[in-house]
Design brief:
The chain has 352 residues and is an alpha/beta fold. The protein has helices at residues 6-16, 19-26, 33-42, 89-99, 113-119, 135-147, 166-171, 208-214, 227-235, 257-268, 283-291, 301-309, 313-333, and strands at residues 45-47, 62-64, 67-69, 73-75, 102-105, 124-129, 153-156, 178-179, 191-192, 219-224, 240-243, 273-277, 297-299, 347-349. Strand 12, helix 11 (283-291) and strand 13 form a beta-alpha-beta unit.
């Protein structure tokens, strides 16, 4: 079977994976309204192309936090990649390094941070943190990722409690997952997921100053959907925001990420970089997100589909190549020769 778009990978991955793993990847919270709307919302946006422009050379490169990436298409933090491929996050990291893009490694990685770095020593890496109630454990982990060469700390905000993921509850999946990184790398044994890794329910805005005091890494806040929180992010001197609803896996019936993007971008007034994850499936989707103010997008589920379909890193590389090529085509067909030429005038919201 020839896989020519991301939805092809999704269909093929469904055939390769067990029901419980498939449900874990695909599932949303409650009725999965937000999960589905993340994709549908992109289709409510129409493009306004400009023609008679020289597009013989189109450059997809851009920068995030001062680091150049080959295209504004990066890898979002998702956990437990070993569920779909034995080498797990090591394969993901190798694919990201080969593509010249950023990979955000999850707290819930199934490979150790050290193994991920060894697998892709030259890759651009950020680390995503679920804040633990034990501040000392957070400090040790942050110092560890800093010493390993990670370039930014991404703090997830939208999980003070876990969303109501019905499929995972029915499948009792959490009992069977293990975690390697909320421990000293010298201890060896993996920790059962959520048994030993509670997430802080008391994290507040004023706590950000503590994180800033213990690391020199830029801090990115993941999970912001409103102008009020975006304004607070700027006030608290963070370096970036990822507009995200956790792939529709946390609070159902919130705004699709692309629908929340405009509000957040307007609120920060260019003072910090804004990124987006959730619902990106085509090159047109990437173009729309950038036109509405995102600096780049992050892919979640499609990366796992790639791992499952085509021998690990090779499948991830193919997913990234397909989306990058589609984005290149979208740029050319709208008259954009560089990422800097993508702007709000290229899109309008459909009345349908």
């Amino acid at each position: 079977m020839s896989l020519v778009c991301l939805t092809d990978f999704q269909a093929h991955a469904r055939e390769q994976l067990s029901k419980s793993t498939r449900d874990f990847i695909e599932g949303g919270a409650d009725d999965s309204i937000t999960r589905d709307d993340n994709i549908a919302a992109f289709k409510r946006i129409r493009l306004r192309p400009r023609y008679l422009r020289d597009v013989s050379e189109v450059d997809t490169r851009t920068t995030i936090q001062g680091e150049e990436i080959s295209a504004p298409i990066c890898i979002a933090p998702t956990g437990f990649h070993c569920l779909v491929w034995p080498d797990g996050e090591m394969s993901t990291a190798r694919a990201a390094q080969a593509a010249g893009i950023c990979y955000i490694t999850s707290t819930f990685a199934s490979c150790s941070l050290e193994d991920i770095v060894i697998a892709a020593p030259e890759g651009l890496r950020w680390f995503q943190l679920y804040v633990h109630p034990d501040l000392q454990l957070n400090k040790q982990l942050i110092q560890r990722v800093e010493s390993l060469g990670f370039k930014a700390l991404v703090i997830t905000l939208d999980t003070p409690v876990c969303g109501n993921r019905r499929h995972d509850i029915r499948n009792q999946l959490r009992r069977n997952l293990t975690l390697t990184d909320l421990q000293s790398p010298k201890k060896g044994n993996a920790i059962p997921y959520f048994q030993m890794t509670p997430i802080s329910t008391s994290l507040c805005w004023n706590d950000l100053s503590w994180f800033q005091s213990i690391t020199r890494l830029p801090i990115i806040l993941k999970g912001i959907l409103t102008k009020e929180d975006a304004e607070l992010a700027v006030k608290h001197n963070v370096q970036g925001i990822i507009v995200s609803n956790h792939g529709g896996r946390q609070l159902d019936e919130v705004l699709a990420s692309i629908d929340a993007l405009t509000e957040v971008v307007a609120a920060v007034k260019g003072k910090i970089e804004v990124y987006l994850d959730g619902g990106v499936r085509t090159g047109n989707d990437v173009l729309k997100a950038l036109a509405l103010g995102a600096k780049c997008i992050f892919l979640g589920r499609p990366i796992l589909w790639g791992l499952a379909c085509k021998q690990g890193e090779h499948g991830v590389k193919e997913v990234l190549n397909i989306l990058t090529n589609e984005f290149h085509t979208s740029m050319a067909l709208t008259g954009c020769r560089s990422v800097a030429e993508i702007n709000r005038n290229l899109v309008q919201f459909s009345r349908l």
